[in-house]
Design brief:
- 37% of the residues lie in helices and 18% in strands.
- By secondary structure, it is an alpha/beta fold.
- A 6-stranded parallel β-sheet has the order 5-4-1-13-14-15, sandwiched between helices. A 5-stranded parallel β-sheet has the order 7-6-8-9-12, sandwiched between helices.
- The radius of gyration is 20 Å and the shape is globular.
- 46% of the residues are buried.
Length: 282
């Protein structure tokens, strides 16, 4: 395990989490835009990943652009896209009852699935801000009647300005309690999400790096997928938290700015110094 950026990395492709790594509360983390540009200039394939299944890649690309980070739609990979890719492989042209928003419904439609509440092959639970009791009841009855239960991601809460909201994992637990049926969860920490991202890139795990801000999703899934794992300390995990886990990332960095090459890194540091001077003057 290395804590600085001097480590020799045999990495041809990169996967990176979004929230806590590239952006925080819709503001770009210093060095994030420059790192994306550096990968593009060096022609290193990359994907930006998120467990959030609410948004389409177009939505997320626009959100990142507002933060000053240029990531095209085809370089975003969500738990919704991973779920659709998995189910397309499992049951091409199948049918599904879906609870969720545009991210999952669009992905499933583009994967060739018929959306129905009558005898579907699958019940697919994604994230939404307005979980319907009627829809949850329908899902329970369909699962009891034989539909297979799929969940896009295991997150039990999602953030909001007012505080935590119940999310996909919490609603999945409710459905499991009512049906006695455990779902198959596609998103992190299932390494399935990383493997599907590697397939999209045509990349090999031995030469791919994963950057994340969580030990319990990004790092453990990256290790299980055989990736070079990088933990940054700009999101959920802090250095003191590492002792809770029996595994370690390959590298621990303060932020993605530590992955920049010298000229770009110096520019970021200069900008940070100027910002601190401005704050001091105020």
């Amino acid at each position: 395990m290395t804590t600085g950026k001097k480590m020799e990395r045999d990495v041809d492709c990169w996967l990176t989490d979004m929230d806590g790594v590239l952006v925080h509360e819709n503001k770009a983390i210093p060095g994030a835009a420059e790192l994306i540009n550096q990968w593009r200039e060096k022609k290193k394939p990359f994907l930006v990943l998120t467990n959030n299944s609410i948004y389409t890649p177009r939505d997320l690309s626009a959100r990142l652009a507002r933060s000053g980070i240029d990531v095209p739609e085809d370089q975003l990979w969500t738990s919704a896209l991973a779920t659709a890719a998995f189910l397309k492989d499992q049951s091409p042209g199948g049918s599904a009852f879906i609870i969720g928003e545009a991210g999952i419904t669009t992905a499933m439609h583009e994967a060739g699935f018929v959306m129905t509440d009558t005898d579907p092959d699958y019940v697919v639970l994604g994230e939404t801000r307005t979980y319907s009791f009627e829809a949850i009841t329908r899902a329970i009855r369909l699962i009891n009647n034989g539909a297979r239960f799929i969940v896009t991601n295991p997150d039990v809460t999602s953030p909001s300005q007012e505080g935590p909201l119940p999310a996909t994992g919490a609603v999945a637990a409710l459905i499991t309690s009512a049906t006695k049926r455990e779902p198959y969860v596609v998103g992190k920490p299932n390494p399935m999400m990383f493997r599907s991202a590697l397939n999209k890139l045509g990349a090999h795990s031995l030469r791919t790096g994963m950057i994340g801000d969580r030990m319990d999703t990004d790092v453990v899934a990256g290790i299980e997928a055989g990736l070079h794992t990088v933990l940054v300390l700009t999101g959920i995990a802090q250095r003191d938290d590492l002792e809770q886990y029996p595994f370690r990332p390959k590298e621990i960095l303060d932020s993605v700015a530590d992955l920049l090459e010298d000229d770009n890194a110096q520019a970021i540091k200069s900008g940070e110094k100027e910002a601190r001077k401005s704050e001091t003057k105020k």
